[in-house]
Design goal:
This protein is an alpha/beta fold. Helix content is 48%, strand content 17%. The chain has a single domain, classed as Alpha-Beta Barrel (TIM Barrel). The strands form three sheets. Strands 1-2-3-6-7-10-11-12 form an eight-stranded parallel barrel, surrounded by seven helices. A two-stranded antiparallel ribbon has the order 4-5.
Length: 305
Protein backbone atom coordinates (compact mmCIF):
# COMPACT_ATOMS: atom_id res chain seq x y z
CA UNK A 1 0.00 0.00 0.00
CA UNK A 2 1.24 3.44 -0.97
CA UNK A 3 1.33 5.04 2.48
CA UNK A 4 3.14 2.00 3.88
CA UNK A 5 5.99 2.83 1.49
CA UNK A 6 5.94 6.46 2.56
CA UNK A 7 5.96 5.57 6.26
CA UNK A 8 8.96 3.31 5.69
CA UNK A 9 10.83 6.02 3.80
CA UNK A 10 10.08 8.50 6.60
CA UNK A 11 11.35 6.04 9.21
CA UNK A 12 14.48 5.33 7.18
CA UNK A 13 15.43 9.02 7.07
CA UNK A 14 13.77 9.92 10.38
CA UNK A 15 12.31 12.88 8.57
CA UNK A 16 8.58 13.43 7.83
CA UNK A 17 9.08 16.21 5.30
CA UNK A 18 8.25 16.77 1.65
CA UNK A 19 10.27 18.99 -0.65
CA UNK A 20 7.77 20.98 -2.68
CA UNK A 21 8.86 21.48 -6.29
CA UNK A 22 6.70 24.45 -7.31
CA UNK A 23 9.11 26.36 -9.56
CA UNK A 24 8.59 29.90 -10.83
CA UNK A 25 10.83 32.03 -13.01
CA UNK A 26 11.72 34.28 -10.07
CA UNK A 27 12.89 31.29 -8.01
CA UNK A 28 15.58 30.29 -10.49
CA UNK A 29 19.21 31.06 -9.66
CA UNK A 30 20.90 33.75 -11.70
CA UNK A 31 22.00 32.57 -15.12
CA UNK A 32 19.95 29.36 -15.19
CA UNK A 33 17.17 30.67 -17.40
CA UNK A 34 19.65 32.56 -19.58
CA UNK A 35 21.42 29.32 -20.53
CA UNK A 36 18.16 27.91 -21.84
CA UNK A 37 16.93 31.07 -23.58
CA UNK A 38 20.29 31.28 -25.35
CA UNK A 39 19.40 28.00 -27.06
CA UNK A 40 15.61 28.25 -27.38
CA UNK A 41 14.86 31.97 -27.16
CA UNK A 42 12.50 33.55 -24.68
CA UNK A 43 10.03 30.69 -25.00
CA UNK A 44 7.97 28.45 -22.78
CA UNK A 45 10.23 25.60 -23.85
CA UNK A 46 13.26 27.44 -22.47
CA UNK A 47 11.51 28.04 -19.15
CA UNK A 48 10.46 24.38 -18.95
CA UNK A 49 14.06 23.30 -19.54
CA UNK A 50 15.25 25.61 -16.77
CA UNK A 51 12.60 24.24 -14.41
CA UNK A 52 13.76 20.69 -15.10
CA UNK A 53 17.39 21.61 -14.44
CA UNK A 54 16.35 23.38 -11.23
CA UNK A 55 14.28 20.41 -10.04
CA UNK A 56 16.99 17.87 -10.75
CA UNK A 57 19.56 19.92 -8.87
CA UNK A 58 17.27 20.17 -5.86
CA UNK A 59 16.41 16.48 -5.89
CA UNK A 60 20.06 15.44 -6.18
CA UNK A 61 20.85 17.65 -3.17
CA UNK A 62 17.92 16.49 -1.03
CA UNK A 63 17.39 12.83 -1.89
CA UNK A 64 19.34 11.55 1.12
CA UNK A 65 17.50 13.91 3.51
CA UNK A 66 13.82 13.99 2.50
CA UNK A 67 11.63 10.96 1.78
CA UNK A 68 9.29 12.63 -0.69
CA UNK A 69 8.68 15.43 -3.18
CA UNK A 70 5.46 17.22 -4.11
CA UNK A 71 5.05 18.62 -7.61
CA UNK A 72 2.46 21.43 -7.96
CA UNK A 73 0.99 20.80 -11.38
CA UNK A 74 -0.13 24.44 -11.89
CA UNK A 75 3.47 25.61 -12.08
CA UNK A 76 4.07 23.25 -14.98
CA UNK A 77 0.72 23.66 -16.73
CA UNK A 78 1.47 27.40 -16.96
CA UNK A 79 4.22 26.52 -19.46
CA UNK A 80 1.94 24.51 -21.73
CA UNK A 81 2.98 21.18 -23.29
CA UNK A 82 6.66 21.75 -22.50
CA UNK A 83 5.79 22.31 -18.85
CA UNK A 84 3.76 19.11 -18.70
CA UNK A 85 6.73 17.25 -20.14
CA UNK A 86 8.87 18.72 -17.35
CA UNK A 87 6.27 17.57 -14.80
CA UNK A 88 6.49 14.04 -16.18
CA UNK A 89 10.28 14.00 -16.35
CA UNK A 90 10.61 15.48 -12.86
CA UNK A 91 8.33 12.78 -11.45
CA UNK A 92 10.32 10.08 -13.23
CA UNK A 93 13.60 11.52 -11.97
CA UNK A 94 12.29 11.60 -8.40
CA UNK A 95 11.18 7.97 -8.64
CA UNK A 96 14.60 7.04 -9.95
CA UNK A 97 16.15 8.54 -6.82
CA UNK A 98 13.85 6.47 -4.62
CA UNK A 99 11.69 9.42 -3.57
CA UNK A 100 7.97 9.14 -2.90
CA UNK A 101 6.17 11.31 -5.46
CA UNK A 102 3.06 13.38 -4.76
CA UNK A 103 1.47 15.32 -7.59
CA UNK A 104 -0.58 18.23 -6.28
CA UNK A 105 -3.21 18.63 -8.99
CA UNK A 106 -6.39 18.84 -6.86
CA UNK A 107 -8.33 16.94 -9.49
CA UNK A 108 -12.01 16.10 -9.17
CA UNK A 109 -14.96 15.42 -11.44
CA UNK A 110 -17.62 12.81 -12.07
CA UNK A 111 -18.05 9.73 -14.18
CA UNK A 112 -15.74 9.20 -17.12
CA UNK A 113 -13.98 12.53 -16.54
CA UNK A 114 -12.90 11.53 -13.03
CA UNK A 115 -11.90 8.16 -14.44
CA UNK A 116 -9.67 9.91 -16.99
CA UNK A 117 -8.08 12.17 -14.38
CA UNK A 118 -7.34 9.13 -12.26
CA UNK A 119 -5.90 7.22 -15.20
CA UNK A 120 -3.57 10.14 -15.95
CA UNK A 121 -1.98 10.18 -12.50
CA UNK A 122 -2.75 6.98 -10.59
CA UNK A 123 -3.67 4.38 -13.17
CA UNK A 124 -2.79 3.50 -16.72
CA UNK A 125 -3.85 4.57 -20.21
CA UNK A 126 -4.13 1.71 -22.66
CA UNK A 127 -3.12 2.19 -26.28
CA UNK A 128 -3.83 -1.01 -28.14
CA UNK A 129 -2.28 -3.72 -25.98
CA UNK A 130 0.19 -1.40 -24.23
CA UNK A 131 -0.43 0.41 -20.94
CA UNK A 132 1.22 3.74 -20.18
CA UNK A 133 1.66 5.91 -17.08
CA UNK A 134 1.06 9.48 -18.23
CA UNK A 135 2.28 11.26 -15.07
CA UNK A 136 3.81 8.70 -12.73
CA UNK A 137 3.27 9.35 -9.03
CA UNK A 138 2.57 7.58 -5.75
CA UNK A 139 -0.20 9.89 -4.54
CA UNK A 140 -2.45 12.60 -5.94
CA UNK A 141 -4.34 15.45 -4.28
CA UNK A 142 -8.08 15.30 -4.94
CA UNK A 143 -10.94 17.80 -4.58
CA UNK A 144 -13.87 16.18 -2.73
CA UNK A 145 -16.66 18.60 -3.52
CA UNK A 146 -18.29 16.58 -6.30
CA UNK A 147 -19.14 13.78 -3.88
CA UNK A 148 -18.41 10.09 -3.51
CA UNK A 149 -18.83 9.17 -7.18
CA UNK A 150 -15.84 11.44 -7.82
CA UNK A 151 -13.69 9.97 -5.06
CA UNK A 152 -14.55 6.38 -5.89
CA UNK A 153 -13.02 6.64 -9.36
CA UNK A 154 -9.66 7.60 -7.85
CA UNK A 155 -9.87 4.93 -5.15
CA UNK A 156 -10.41 2.22 -7.78
CA UNK A 157 -6.98 2.96 -9.24
CA UNK A 158 -5.48 3.25 -5.76
CA UNK A 159 -6.70 -0.26 -5.07
CA UNK A 160 -5.54 -1.62 -8.41
CA UNK A 161 -2.10 -0.03 -8.56
CA UNK A 162 -1.14 0.49 -4.91
CA UNK A 163 -1.50 4.29 -5.01
CA UNK A 164 -3.02 6.84 -2.62
CA UNK A 165 -4.96 10.10 -2.55
CA UNK A 166 -4.82 13.15 -0.30
CA UNK A 167 -8.28 14.72 -0.23
CA UNK A 168 -8.67 18.43 0.53
CA UNK A 169 -10.07 18.78 4.03
CA UNK A 170 -8.86 21.81 6.08
CA UNK A 171 -6.46 23.74 3.93
CA UNK A 172 -3.77 26.25 4.89
CA UNK A 173 -5.06 29.34 3.08
CA UNK A 174 -6.52 32.14 5.21
CA UNK A 175 -9.96 32.12 3.59
CA UNK A 176 -10.48 28.36 3.94
CA UNK A 177 -12.89 28.94 6.83
CA UNK A 178 -15.33 30.71 4.49
CA UNK A 179 -16.35 27.33 3.12
CA UNK A 180 -14.66 24.59 5.11
CA UNK A 181 -16.03 25.70 8.50
CA UNK A 182 -19.63 26.21 7.38
CA UNK A 183 -21.94 24.11 9.52
CA UNK A 184 -23.57 21.17 7.74
CA UNK A 185 -26.09 19.94 10.30
CA UNK A 186 -24.19 19.30 13.51
CA UNK A 187 -20.71 19.31 11.93
CA UNK A 188 -18.50 21.78 10.12
CA UNK A 189 -18.01 20.91 6.46
CA UNK A 190 -14.36 19.87 6.88
CA UNK A 191 -15.52 17.15 9.30
CA UNK A 192 -18.19 15.97 6.88
CA UNK A 193 -15.38 15.52 4.35
CA UNK A 194 -13.13 13.79 6.89
CA UNK A 195 -15.96 11.43 7.87
CA UNK A 196 -16.51 10.55 4.21
CA UNK A 197 -12.81 9.87 3.63
CA UNK A 198 -12.57 7.85 6.84
CA UNK A 199 -15.45 5.63 5.69
CA UNK A 200 -13.98 5.26 2.23
CA UNK A 201 -10.66 4.16 3.69
CA UNK A 202 -12.07 1.71 6.23
CA UNK A 203 -11.40 -1.32 4.00
CA UNK A 204 -8.15 0.09 2.64
CA UNK A 205 -5.95 -0.01 5.72
CA UNK A 206 -2.28 -0.84 5.32
CA UNK A 207 0.28 -2.56 7.50
CA UNK A 208 0.82 0.50 9.71
CA UNK A 209 -2.85 1.28 10.32
CA UNK A 210 -3.35 4.02 7.74
CA UNK A 211 -5.70 3.84 4.78
CA UNK A 212 -4.87 4.76 1.20
CA UNK A 213 -7.31 7.70 1.45
CA UNK A 214 -5.59 10.55 3.30
CA UNK A 215 -6.43 14.22 3.81
CA UNK A 216 -4.84 17.64 3.37
CA UNK A 217 -4.74 19.66 6.61
CA UNK A 218 -2.71 22.87 6.77
CA UNK A 219 0.16 23.61 9.11
CA UNK A 220 -1.50 26.97 9.78
CA UNK A 221 -4.40 25.09 11.44
CA UNK A 222 -2.73 23.49 14.52
CA UNK A 223 -5.97 23.12 16.49
CA UNK A 224 -7.62 21.35 13.57
CA UNK A 225 -4.58 19.12 13.13
CA UNK A 226 -4.90 17.95 16.73
CA UNK A 227 -8.67 17.56 16.48
CA UNK A 228 -8.56 15.56 13.26
CA UNK A 229 -5.69 13.34 14.38
CA UNK A 230 -7.63 12.41 17.51
CA UNK A 231 -10.87 11.76 15.63
CA UNK A 232 -9.41 9.95 12.63
CA UNK A 233 -6.48 7.72 13.60
CA UNK A 234 -6.47 5.93 10.21
CA UNK A 235 -6.18 9.07 8.05
CA UNK A 236 -2.72 10.01 6.81
CA UNK A 237 -2.18 13.79 6.60
CA UNK A 238 -0.45 15.89 3.98
CA UNK A 239 0.42 19.11 5.83
CA UNK A 240 1.16 22.12 3.59
CA UNK A 241 1.75 25.66 4.85
CA UNK A 242 5.04 25.13 6.68
CA UNK A 243 7.53 27.98 6.41
CA UNK A 244 6.54 30.75 4.01
CA UNK A 245 2.82 30.43 4.81
CA UNK A 246 3.47 30.72 8.54
CA UNK A 247 3.41 27.16 9.87
CA UNK A 248 6.19 26.18 12.31
CA UNK A 249 7.47 22.94 13.79
CA UNK A 250 5.50 23.38 17.01
CA UNK A 251 2.31 23.88 15.00
CA UNK A 252 2.49 20.57 13.17
CA UNK A 253 3.26 18.30 16.14
CA UNK A 254 -0.42 17.48 16.61
CA UNK A 255 -0.59 15.89 13.16
CA UNK A 256 1.42 12.85 14.31
CA UNK A 257 0.45 9.81 16.33
CA UNK A 258 2.39 8.58 19.36
CA UNK A 259 4.83 6.70 17.11
CA UNK A 260 5.62 9.81 15.09
CA UNK A 261 3.61 8.49 12.15
CA UNK A 262 0.58 9.69 10.27
CA UNK A 263 1.73 12.86 8.54
CA UNK A 264 4.16 14.35 6.08
CA UNK A 265 4.93 18.08 6.08
CA UNK A 266 5.51 20.06 2.90
CA UNK A 267 7.95 22.95 2.46
CA UNK A 268 8.23 24.53 -0.98
CA UNK A 269 9.53 28.09 -1.04
CA UNK A 270 11.58 27.55 2.12
CA UNK A 271 13.73 25.06 0.20
CA UNK A 272 13.53 26.30 -3.38
CA UNK A 273 14.28 29.90 -2.41
CA UNK A 274 16.71 29.20 0.42
CA UNK A 275 19.53 30.47 -1.80
CA UNK A 276 17.89 33.91 -1.94
CA UNK A 277 17.56 34.13 1.83
CA UNK A 278 21.15 32.96 2.31
CA UNK A 279 22.37 35.35 -0.40
CA UNK A 280 24.34 32.65 -2.18
CA UNK A 281 24.49 31.43 -5.75
CA UNK A 282 24.68 27.79 -4.62
CA UNK A 283 20.99 26.97 -4.54
CA UNK A 284 21.50 23.26 -3.90
CA UNK A 285 23.70 23.79 -0.84
CA UNK A 286 21.26 26.36 0.52
CA UNK A 287 18.30 24.01 -0.01
CA UNK A 288 20.17 21.20 1.70
CA UNK A 289 20.95 23.36 4.73
CA UNK A 290 17.33 24.51 4.95
CA UNK A 291 16.06 20.91 4.70
CA UNK A 292 18.35 19.78 7.51
CA UNK A 293 17.22 22.72 9.64
CA UNK A 294 13.56 21.84 9.05
CA UNK A 295 14.16 18.17 9.82
CA UNK A 296 15.92 18.97 13.08
CA UNK A 297 13.26 21.53 14.09
CA UNK A 298 10.51 18.94 13.64
CA UNK A 299 12.49 16.34 15.58
CA UNK A 300 12.30 18.58 18.65
CA UNK A 301 8.53 17.97 18.71
CA UNK A 302 8.10 14.63 16.91
CA UNK A 303 9.88 11.37 17.71
CA UNK A 304 9.77 9.03 14.73
CA UNK A 305 9.80 5.33 15.54
Amino acid sequence: MSFDRLIEKIAEKRNPTVAGLDPRIEYLPEGMLARHTAQKGETLEAAAGAFLEFNRGLMDALADIVPAVKLQSACYEALGPAGLQTLKESAEYASGLGLYVIIDAKRGDIGSTAESYSAAYLGRVKVGNTEHMAFPCDALTVNPYLGSDNLNEFLKDCDKYGKAVFVLCKTSNKSSSEVQELMAGDRPLYRVIADQIDRAGAKRTGEYGYSSAGVVVGATQPAHLRELRERYPALFFLVPGYGAQGGAAADIAGAFDKRGRGAVVNNSRGLMCAWQKANTADYTAAAREAALFMRDAIRVYVTIQ
